[in-house]
Amino acid sequence: MRAKIVAGNWKMNNDLEESKSLVKKVAKSIKKKSLNNTRVIVAPTFVSLDKVSKIAKETKVEVAAQNMHFEKNGAFTGEVSAEMLKSVGVKIVILGHSERREYFGETDALLAKKVDTALANKMEVIFCFGEVLEDRKSGKHFDVVESQIKNALFHLEAKAWKNIILAYEPVWAIGTGETASPEQAQEMHAFIRKIVAEKYTSEVAEDVSILYGGSVKPANAEEIFSKPDVDGGLIGGAALNKDDFKAIIDAI
Ligand code: 13P
C-alpha cells in the first residue's frame, strides 16, 4: 500500500540553529503518534542537512535535500552531489521544484539526468511538477503535467518507480494563499495515476504516492487529503511553523 506523506520544504529559510530547533520540535510533536503508514519528511537547506539529519536519525522524522547535481564530483562551483548527500545520511531529494525550473533554468532534460543519478545512488526522489496559471486558464494543464512527467520519468524502468514520489504543485498555488480546490487536486492526481498506469501497470500507478503542494495550511489540509488520489502534501510556508506543520500531520 502506498505511503501517506507530509513533507516540509523549508526552501531558503532557517539558519543552522533555527533548523536544529525546528526539526527537534517536529520530532517531538510526532513522538507519541502512531504514524502507521505515514511518513514525515523535512527538507532544510544544504547548510543544515548534516546536523538535521543526525538529529532526525533518532526520531520518526526523515530528511530530504532540496536539490542535487547529476555529476559525482568535479568543477561545478556551488553544487552538491548525491554522494555528498548520502555522506551526511540524506537519502531523499526533491527534484524539479518549480522554483528551480523558473529561477535556475532547470529543464526536463536536466531533471531526467538528476533523477537517474539519484536512483543510481539508491536515493528516493520527490519529483515536482505543475502548470502555471496561463496553462490552466487555457486548458493546457493536463498536457503540461503529462509532458513534465513523461520527459523526466518515463524512460525509467517500472521497478525504479518504487523510489519515486510525485508532487503536483500548480505554480499559481505556491506561496499565493490560493490553493487548488480539493476537486482540482483530485482530478489532476487521478489523471497522473492514469497516465502512469497506461505507461507502466496499474500496480505501479497504485503504489506511487502523489502529494499535493501549494498553499496547504491547517485550515484546508484535511479536505485536500481526504481525496482518494491525494496521498499527502509538500508544504512550504506552513512547514516553517511547528504548530501548523503538526496540524497538517494531524490532518492526514
Ligand atoms: P507553499 O506551501 O508556501 O505554497 O509552498 C508550496 C511548495 O512550493 C512546497 O514545495
Descriptive notes:
The protein is of the alpha/beta class and 252 residues long. Helix content is 45%, strand content 16%. It has helices at residues 16-30, 46-57, 82-87, 98-104, 108-120, 133-137, 141-153, 182-199, 202-207, 218-225, 242-251; strands at 4-9, 38-43, 61-65, 92-95, 124-129, 164-168, 210-213, 232-235. Strands 1-2-3-4-5-6-7-8 form an 8-stranded parallel beta barrel, surrounded by 7 helices. The longest helix is centred in the C-terminal third of the chain and has 18 residues, at 182-199. The protein binds 1,3-dihydroxyacetonephosphate. Residues 9, 97, 169, 174-175, 213-216, 234-238 line the site of 1,3-dihydroxyacetonephosphate. 1,3-dihydroxyacetonephosphate (13P) binds at residues 9, 97, 169, 174-175, 213-216, 234-238.
Write the layout of secondary structure elements.
Elements: E1 4-9, H1 16-30, E2 38-43, H2 46-57, E3 61-65, H3 82-87, E4 92-95, H4 98-104, H5 108-120, E5 124-129, H6 133-137, H7 141-153, E6 164-168, H8 182-199, H9 202-207, E7 210-213, H10 218-225, E8 232-235, H11 242-251
Parallel strand pairs: 1-2, 1-8, 2-3, 3-4, 4-5, 5-6, 6-7, 7-8
The site of 1,3-dihydroxyacetonephosphate has 14 residues, from β8.
Low-confidence segments, given as residue ranges, are none
Mean pLDDT: 97
Kindly, what is the distance between the CA atoms of the first and last residues, rounded to a whole number of angstroms? 16 Å
Strand order, largest beta sheet: 1-2-3-4-5-6-7-8
